Amino acid sequence: MKKENINDFRSEIFKLCNEIKKNDSLHIIQETLEKLFMCENIEEKIPSNIFFHQIAKHGNNQFYGYLFANENFDMYKDIFPMAKSPIKEDIKVFEKAHATIYTLIKLCTEDMRNNYPKIAKVLDPYSKYKQISQSKKMDI
């Protein structure tokens, strides 16, 4: 790739990031994540959702971990008996965030998928992950 093409690409990525920062959804996502670390009442010593967060954080996988942990919550009950499943509204926020990130990935690799499908698959950070179900087509 030529240097001017790299600079154009970087410039477009920075423009995209700046537009994303302006979106109200970013604040909703941030508030939803912060709830995982907050106590619901004064008597609590440990936030009740902190255990779900521990289950969900599988490295650097953005929101996939939260969706996978929610979908497979029964599998974790013995290991984290104090964990509780998040409310459906929170999961919907995570689904929308994941769908947005995944759509960006797909759009960025769209040109490669036809001519270089193996490269496009390698560039997909979720290609080696187990599939998770999306509740329905998200309006992103």
Low-confidence stretches: none
Average of per-residue pLDDT values = 78
Kindly estimate the percentage of residues that lie in beta strands according to DSSP: under 5%
Q: Total helix count?
A: 7
Number of strands: 0
Account of the protein in words:
- The structure is a single chain.
- The chain is mostly helical and 140 residues long.
- Helices cover 61% and strands 0% of the residues.
- It contains seven helices and no strands.
- The longest helix has 28 residues, at 88-115.
- It starts with a helix and ends in a 17-residue tail after the last helix.
- 14% of the residues are buried.
How are the SSEs placed, and which strands pair?
Elements: H1 3-22, H2 24-35, H3 50-56, H4 64-71, H5 73-76, H6 88-115, H7 117-123
Helix pairs in contact: 2-6, 3-4, 4-6, 6-7
Quick structural overview:
With 140 residues, this protein is mostly helical.
Structure characteristics:
140 residues; mainly alpha; flat
